[in-house]
Amino acid sequence: MADGPVSIDTADTDELAEAEGVTDASADRATGVRSRAEGGIVAQLRLDHPDLFLQPTLRNAPDVSVEPDYWTTVEPDRTFVFLTVQGTAFEGFETALETDPTVTDPVLVDRYPDRRVYRVTLTDRATTFVAETARVGGRLLELSAARDGWLVQLRFPDRERLVAFNDVCRERDISVTVDHLRISDDDDDGVVALTDKQQELLAVAHEEGYFDVPRGISQDELADRLDVSKSAVSQRLRRAIGELCTSTLS
Q1: CB 128 within 8 A of CB 53
Q2: N or C: which terminal CB in the chain sees fewer CB atoms within 10 Å?
Q3: Gyration radius of the chain over CA positions
């Protein structure tokens, strides 16, 4: 829906709701389980805050791609987060971790030729948003890191809950910009559509011969062409190809 990053406002969600008739529907059901599965809004958002989880590391180690695998609370005040890090600049990433006030006790738990897996512990300084998403009725679909913030895809059952999430972020001084908004409907079959940026990247990569043998363009050149980081190109390609495989092979 959006041509570029813009702030969420009620007009955005009003337009979506009026176009598709989205409501918080709970249709007549044979069981007592409430349903929020009909319709809804999928939002791709960019979140930014100086103390957002891992943000200091992302700013100081831009040459790697970081994806959270999962997190778990092992004690009331201790939460582990496992991260997959791809790239080659692992030493710089580890150095940045050691001075990041949002995490502590970083541990390398797995090593592969092209990636490493780390475990970090959240500190009281870390600003997070996953629990807040659930509290307002949203669901996390995708989460990836960028130097200028976290890129998230969230599904909300209606526009009111999307606005509620934005209000919570505003109260916590988390900057929210919109990359993409779309209606979730029965035709989705659980597959999240490609974002505008993913479509643009795939189009350019195909036109310039990225998928040819030998390749006509490298990821570095794609990054320069689109004016984004190499890690952003790597993440978008992987997610876009994954979505295409899911939609065609499932």
Answers
A1: yes
A2: C
A3: 19
Both 46 and 131 in a single domain?
A: yes
Note the pLDDT tens digit of each residue in 159-189.
899 999 999 999 999 999 887 777 766 555 4
Looking at the fold, whether 81 and 182 belong to one and the same domain comes out as no
What is the Cα–Cα distance from 122 to 76, expressed in whole angstroms?
Answer: 12
In this prediction the pTM is 0.62
* Cα distance between residue 231 and residue 233, in whole Å: 5
Domain boundaries, position 169: 10-26+34-50+127-186
Could you tell me if 209 and 216 are in contact, meaning their C-beta atoms sit under 8 angstroms apart?
Answer: yes
The domain that holds 145 is classified in CATH as 3.30.70
CA atoms within 13 A of residue 28's CA, in its CB half-sphere:
0
Count of domains in the chain?
Answer: 3
